[in-house]
Amino acid sequence: MKKTRGEKLFYIFNCVFLGIIALLALYPFVYVLSASISSSDAVVTGKVILLPKDINFDSYAKVLSEKGIWIAYLNTFYYTIFGVMANLILTICGAYALSKKRIMGRTAISFFIALTMWFQPGMIPMYLNFRDLNMLDSRFTIVIGFAITTFYVFLMRTFFQGIPEELEEAAKVDGANDLTILWKVYLPLSKAALVTIGLFYAVHRWNGYFWTMILLSDESKVPLQVLLKKLIVEMNVNDEMGNMAVYSKETIIYATIIISIIPIVAAYPFIQKYFVKGTMIGSVKG
């Protein structure tokens, strides 16, 4: 179909506008990357605007030589891997149950679950709850204490409801129970949904720092983001990583930021095909 002049102008305007937005969103990342491989003097004096100046990797060498960084890195992987596993297991189980019309009281159960999206207990009651359950300063608390997000349960439920009921009926004729149907019918058909929701959970886990900062007091258990928060907000580089008089605090911080986002950035291209398919989850009910 031939486009009108107005449609062409609108298309050009959209491309230009979205291109500007993309550049604005990309610039902070480019700046942080450039500053992390520039000399301390160039960063401190403001010479680094877009491209790096006096390229060197001293900050990365110093950051990677610190034992505390590797401990925090391993903690972050631990919380992300096991946390996402707990997230997906509970989300799948809850969504599968809520997707079945035969469940008695399904509407009431869904309503009470949805209430948690509208009414949050607040930070202090949640902390007191963890304290009374003796769950402070525990890795298990970080993994299981935030193991489900109501919004993703409803997204997954909607996706399950879009799978034809005839498949379930055929499986039951062959003698399959609910667990077998979930494992061999629903999950293979839900790869895009699982990868998309899993990615959201993984990013949340990887970037999470607030509750780990509140609930964990043992320095050997804190994730990378808590350490990064101390470096950026408190500018506590010397205390956290030893005497670095020959290094700039800014370059150390920028190098730590780049190191902290590498795994998520590296993983995204491999799951992008699933993510593109899964972006419409919940938008159309089959």
Structure description:
- This protein has 286 residues and is an all-alpha fold.
- It has two domains: 1-55, no CATH class; 67-279, MetI-like (MetI-like fold, Orthogonal Bundle).
- The chain is 71% helix and 0% strand.
- It contains 15 helices and no strands.
- It has helices at 5-36, 40-44, 58-64, 67-98, 106-118, 123-132, 139-144, 150-161, 165-173, 178-186, 191-207, 210-215, 224-233, 237-241, 249-278.
- The longest helix has 32 residues, at 5-36.
- The protein starts with a helix and ends in an 8-residue tail after the last helix.
Helix-strand string: HHHHHHHHHHHHHHH
Radius of gyration, whole Å: 24 Å
CATH class identity of the largest domain: Mainly Alpha
CATH superfamily of the largest domain: MetI-like
- Specify the overall morphology: globular
Low-confidence stretches: 242-246
Total number of beta strands: 0
Distance between the termini: 29 Å
Q: Work out the count of structural domains.
A: 2
By DSSP (H or I, 4+ residues per run), the number of helices equals 15
Q: Do you know the CATH architecture of the largest domain?
A: Orthogonal Bundle
Structural class: mainly alpha
Summarize the amount of helix as a percent range. over 70%
Mean pLDDT: 84
